[in-house]
Automatic annotation (TrEMBL):
It comes from Nocardia transvalensis. Gene3D superfamilies: Vaccinia Virus protein VP39. GO terms for molecular function: methyltransferase activity. The keyword Methyltransferase applies. Transmembrane segments: none annotated. SUPFAM superfamilies: S-adenosyl-L-methionine-dependent methyltransferases (SSF53335). NCBIfam families: mthyl_TIGR00027 (TIGR00027). Pfam families: LCM. Its EC number is 2.1.1.-. The keyword S-adenosyl-L-methionine applies. This is S-adenosyl-L-methionine-dependent methyltransferase.
Amino acid sequence: MRTEGDTWDIKSSVGSTALFVAAARALAGDEPGALAEDPFAEDFLRAAGAEWAALLDGEVPGHPLTDTEFGKDFQEFQAARTRYFDDYFREAGAADIRQVVILAAGLDARAYRLPWADGTVVYELDRPQVLDFKREVLSGNGDEPRADRREIPADLRDDWPRALRDSGFDPSAPTAWLVEGLLIYLPADAVEQLFETIDALSAPGSRVAIEQMDQMPESAAAAFAEQGEETENARNEWVGLIYNEPRSEAAEWFTARGWSAERVDVPDYLREHGRPAPAGEPGAGLVSALVSLVTAVRS
């Protein structure tokens, strides 16, 4: 359960969800015709411990990521959002944006795997333990970023804009922001403050891409909590780490402030790309039906 000022590393609390998500990306990428591939996800999992390596090797029978309706849905969802945000960054680069900020970067390896234009600077913000783990794994494998990657060890509850500027961020230059897998771990007032900060730091021509999730129905949240009491795994513990409450809708928020915003719901995005979309009502096994992806551009 979240508490005020709580902390974590890559294997605990909010940090551990990054490994669960990386596992979904790795498994989804192995499927024929996958929407997206992230070859670095497997590297992180094998470095994280034998239990994650065993999952990749098919040696964990009954795991929720591989043997349940939830797992199939979650894998497709992770591939979809990875593809959406990869395309977003490619389009930002084509628009001559050379400054990128990834908030709560976790195990995002886009600085290493996307074809960045010369002169692109990628700022990655996260807790120092998470950044240390990622750097050690990738450098240990001899991998090098394809852009000027700059780590910003900062908690988003602190003065991260100052840390960003101290590392060379230029608020007068257009920026491509990424807010992926973050908002559900923030209370509503913190989401509002985050949006306000992005707006204040964004020069004309800037873009922001956001993943958001509608409030989970009480019945679904209760089902997660009940399952969490019966069995311990990242899926069931997850509901205790999020703030399941109403938040500002990102497309509406940025549109009201002069940005041009577009929103797509994940089930619609999957159907547009010829992939199976969640069937039935959103619930404990169909979280992706509540998720939407937003891109906004400042004129």
